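This part of the workshop introduces the protein records we will be handling. Backbone structure tokens are a discrete shorthand for how the chain folds in space. Once this layout is familiar, the rest of the handout is easier to follow. The record below serves as our worked example for the rest of this section.
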Amino acid sequence: MGIFKPFEVIRKELEKAEEYSRELLNSNVKLVLKAGGYILDSGGKRIRPGLTIIAGKLFDTPEDRLIPVATVMEYMHTATLLHDDIVDGAKLRRGKPSVNYVFGNDVAVLVGDYMFAKAIYVLAVYGGSEVLKVAAKTVQDMSEGELFQLKKIGDIGLTDDEYFSIIYRKTASLLSTCCECGAIVGGARESEREALKKYGEYIGYAFQLVDDAFDYALDEKTIGKPVGNDIREGKVTYPLLFALKHASDAEKEKIAEILAQVEPSTEQIEYVRQFALTKGGVEATLDLAKNFVSKAKECLKIFKDSPYKKSLFEIADFIVERTY
């Protein structure tokens, strides 16, 4: 399998997780295998299982528990992608037609539900009550994040606190949980568990900030989905949030009108995009992401040097150095 460079140190473990992932899709209902396999085959760096494995490896965790727990972290992520694409009416995911577009919304919803259920079962069996408690809270957070974002569609009065509440729930919470659950399964001390939990949270913030910047700065071919998608869907993300702080009343009014459109025109989307770029929104977003990466690295100071700690540093660096 092609592998994300920082994960070379856990190549064998990730390959086992990939095999286990296929085994879990084994169902009497063929559509589960077909649609679930379709999205799992669509790429991705397996950041979530990789983080879980590396966090566990810091404590020499037994693989018979670590691999199943790590595997279903990707299931939880995949289930949210399936549901998010339905909510957003997305037609592309990682440059390929989305599951809802290929198989229909009904199949996408139910396969997402299946993957959530499978994840909770595996976590209960292999992770124990503490891992299950953390993961269940994360599923709740992710759902609340989606609902709150829907409530705030088109709202140019969105505050920084509200924005960070959304991206914590939608993105950072699961990355934080991956690191924390790896630590729990590994029998980490409370201070070590907390350090990895915060590391995951901070790289989660950084990851989403970079994604939000790319929606304004890159092209469709590079990011694998239509550029300006957030604008099209009426979402106020950090590049626009920052730019609005430096906008005139007339500019704010025009932005609000565009975001309120059910189907804004290409010209309207480009107006908002150029507005955010001109006001320095993308640069500010990327600078903030770098700040979160620095905070993430600080969290790792309590761990002794090892190939696994080095990998965590490389992951943090990749988030702000990536070009896609």
In short: Residues 105-151 form the longest helix (47 residues). The chain has one domain: 5-321.
